[in-house]
Fold these 2 entries.
Entry 1:
Amino acid sequence: MKIGFFDSGIGGITVLYDTLKILPNEDYIYYADTLNVPYGNKSKNEVRKYIFNAIDFIIKQEVKAIVIACNTATSIAIEDLRGKYNIPIIGMEPAVKPTIEKNEDRSKRVLVTATALTLKEEKLHNLITSLDKEHVVDLLPLPGLVDYSERLEFSESKVLPYLEEQLLKYDVSNYETVVLGCTHFSYYKDIFRKLFSPDINIIDGNYGTANNLKKILEEINQLNDGCSHIDFYNSGLKVEDKAELDKYSRLFKRLDSIC
């Protein structure tokens, strides 16, 4: 059986990329909701409808587990998804807890970046309130990075000015860690590094999610030992066009170049 990956667009490829390193012998379905991306600027009810339509489709492909490789979708719907479906469903949230716990220099700050919808969620705010006793966490929505990545725009000349503008009111020298709380943002790790001190920690939840998936599959004795294959779907339509398949190939190459 296959493992399903779901994202609003191409962001989840960054999670699948790390998963392939840990679970190279699995078959995968990658579902990008390309008709409705981005999610971060839509209402919760609208996004929930898109999420459940996508997961209903993925379930019908006879998968053994699903990774919600989208922080926004996880924050909105993960508990309801787990209540509806009887297979492991692994979600993603901004890596705030491990970041705050490992923030050694309490004079330094933590910048959590994500979509506006993720940053508005009560669950995230409650987590930060419970952990951030020194009040070192700042929140920054970066919706433009989702738009850039969906257009396959990765050039420093375009993206760096956008990030510089968004960071104008922040003293970047004050930060020890930047949390990438949207899977789309991981395509820009190299550009983030240009804006902060050389020893900045740039954290996403991708590798931890992949490890969690492996652990769960081991516990239910569902690991494969075959050869990996990936089927791509854009909003329920299987990708068979060579140009579109080449797009996904270029995304993997982009990640090879920055990781």
Entry 2:
Amino acid sequence: MAKVCYCADDFAMNPEISDAILLLIQTGALHATSCMTQAEHWSIAAQQLKPISNNIDVGLHLNFTHRFSSANTTFSLPILMLKAWSRQLDSKLIQQSIEQQWNAFVELMGKQPDFIDGHQHIHQFPVIRDVLVHFLKQQNFQGWVRNLQHPLTISNYTIKTRLLSALGAASLASQCKQKNIHQNHYFAGIYDFEHKNYAQLNQQWLMRAQDNLLIMCHPATQAVDQQDPIAQARVREFQYLSSSQFRDDCRIYQISLSPMDTLL
């Protein structure tokens, strides 16, 4: 059986997202989630997550593009990419923000994150990855970092998948390896969020699954945020992951679900 970990991004972004993730953890569909500690909902969400946090991987979802507050260091994604690749990002501000998000996690969860990833995969960008890897080494980090170096490509999404991988995955992998920081090997979950048949996408990923596969997802119980461009996709993901069809698909494709830290 292929050992796979489903990880939900964006925990604490809003109550509907957090509720969906908590429910899916309880059913055994999810074994990892990454938290947005700048969110107003974080303190309440953390209290709900902490009692079950030893049974799954709980990570920090580093954010530099979603504006929760004017006090946070954030950019639009195009501007962040431009500044990162032109090396115009202020590394001190980046480190300060990473420290703030990290400390907010540790304060409420009572431990270091089990893993690190990034909202819109920004943790693999130039400057950010440099500061992040150095920071993790300083913290004697024992967890793992999400990596997109070996993504599973499926029809219609090959270009997007390879593009996201090309935005720093190899460099991040090299830096983590040099510092002896663990990473997932295979990665899936990339699509355009417009595809109406989420089950079909998952079946393609599961069909190609190998051990140490991390599948990213973004579930929510309801689409309440009109400013969220993937709100409807979140609901479709939740409906599938909470369905008997998902359990059947895992059985058909001989998938064993578990936390990523047990697969490394």
